[in-house]
Amino acid sequence: MTTLPEGAGRRCHAVVNPLHSTIYFSPDTARELNALGIEDRRAAYLAGRSAAMGRVGAGVVTATFHSFNHEMVARHIPAVWETASPEQVLDARLRAADATLRRLLGEEAIASKEMAEAAQLALRAAEACERAVRPLYSAHADLPVPKAPHLALWHAATLLREHRGDGHLMALTRSGLDPVEAIVSHSVTGRGMSVKWLLTTRGWSEEQLTAAGDRLRERGLLSADGRLTEAGITLREELEDETDLLDAAPYEHLGAAGTERLTELATAFTQTAVDAGAYPADLRG
Question: Is the pLDDT of residue 1 over 60?
Answer without folding.
Answer: no
